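User: quick one
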Amino acid sequence: MGKLIRFLPLILVLALGVVLYRGLSLNPQDMPSALVGKTMPSFSLSTLNDGNKTVTEADLQGDIVLLNVWATWCPTCKYEHPYLVDIAKNPQVKLYGLNYKDERDAGQKWLQHYEDPYVFSIFDEAGTVGLDLGVYGAPETFVIDHHGIIRKRFAGAIDTRVWRREFEPLIAQLIAEKKQGK
Amino acid sequence: MKIINILVIAIAVFFTANNAVANAIDTYEFDDEVTKIRFQALSKELRCPKCQNQNLADSNSPIAADLRKELYELLKQGKADIEIVDFMVNRYGEFVLYRPRVSSITYVLWFGPAVLILIGIIVVIVVVRRKPVDKAQIALSAEQQDKLKNLLNDK
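Assistant: Done. Structure below.
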């Protein structure tokens, strides 16, 4: 016992070292969203492509939904775009856009110039929906289940690797839940 | 004396510099002084979600500017401080608070230091009050005394 106690400081320092070393590889930007488990906040805005068409949160409900926050001023969104075009081909999810703090002209041109992967994009010029969703930058992607409940928030660009690691398991789970009629 | 003078000047510079930062971003007009002070206090209490080591008052990032505007609007609507803090926490999580609330996940954060100090105090007391080793055991036996005497006498 007496000898063991001599090693106690060493053990404590080693334990602290392990904890701190682990901390080095954690991503501080990787924060859980406050909205996971809550319903999609309500909104009433026009779509990007049609200023006269109003959409609300009810238009997003019923399917497994991906809501992608994007803007033309965001370079990472450009990187992400081809992957979104790919994801849009997946019939099991519906991809919607949230055009965040952008200009309508620029946004429309972007969708014409590249490809429009979204069922529609919500035109959130003032960033109010973004604020209600706790968005702090673009791109961000939310997964909303068929009951309209936010199940995941992902900050950063989606590519094949991110999709496999972060989204595929959850989408599979949601499809299973939907089949079970939950 | 000189050192004290320098210290006083340094402290004065520090505080005026601090005020300058708070005022540099502040472009909002307030109806009364109390609201202004509340705005300044809240923008120092709330953390910028993007640049995590800055508060809303310090940060120049667009999201911090948006949240300052939102804060201003909420104050104008006559919301209480607690309502404003709830508004932010509901959207950005507990993370936006520089002083996190006491909850099961922040117990370690709030009470850890006190517990560590307590453990330290207990260790010090135990070490200090430990019984001194029996002197008789350290003392030489009669045989050893004789040997020592012989050695000393050899000189």
